[in-house]
Amino acid sequence: MNLIKSKSVNFVWESMFTRPMYETDDIQAQHDLLNEVSTLVARQIIQHTMTKNLRALTPDNLAQAHVH
Question: Which terms does the record give in the GO molecular function aspect (predicted)?
Answer without folding.
Answer: lyase activity
